[in-house]
Amino acid sequence: MAQTTPEQLAERLRARFGEHLVNVAVAHAQVTIEVTPARLVDVCTALRDDADFRFEQLSDLCGVDFLGFGEGEWPVSETATSHGFGRGVTGDKIVGRFGWDDRPRHPQFLGRFASVAHLISYTHNTRLRVRCFAPEDALPVLPTLTNVWPSANWYERESFDLYGIIFEGHPDLRRILTDYGFVGHPFRKDFPLIGNVEVRYDPEARRVVYEPVTSVTPRVTVARVVREDSRWNTSREEAADDWKDN
Q1: What are phi and psi of 153, to 5 degrees?
Q2: In terms of CATH architecture, what is 1-70+106-180?
Q3: N or C, where is the chain less crowded by C-beta within 10 Å?
Q4: What's the pLDDT tens digit per position in 28-52?
Q5: DSSP strand E in 122-168: where?
């Protein structure tokens, strides 16, 4: 069977679901639809069962944190250079440093937490991405898709563990990657890179203990910039002279 093109799939989705879709976008040869939480299960059930779609498999489901989406950690002026490392080691007191509380809001993504499901239709040889934003940032809750695709079970547990997204109706929503005593959700954008607690074995107590992080200093890393250096030129010239002499 000929493969359904992304544009054809997008038109079918608009015609079938209409106002139930918040947005339909085609980018990089793939269709992404955005659905409200109230309609998520109904739309996904239809995507699985309708003959025009037949998305039999959920190949992946992941959480996304859109906090600070599209914004850098520091504002970059027109006079900024593309080299140097000073901005990465000056600490938290730098003037103009990005702050989560007063961050700019990206106009396309008004919500913070979203669940994104990746679907495959073997019948029509095509793929689809389904995105759904949680209504609240403080306590993100979305309906589970385990009754539509059982493979969502562990994926939703992973999203709960790493992002703190609660999937209502999930049969066994527990952490799956971090330790049982882990504090917070490590993939959230505002989670500290050094973590909240560190683990060590206490020989006196003869057990593993959890303590606030004290052995690691918070630091913003900046990618290294390759720059020409006179020492490198000298070294290359000397190596070339040695080769000629030999």
Answers
A1: -55, -60
A2: 2-Layer Sandwich (3.30)
A3: C
A4: 999 999 999 999 999 999 999 999 9
A5: 126-133, 141-143, 166-168
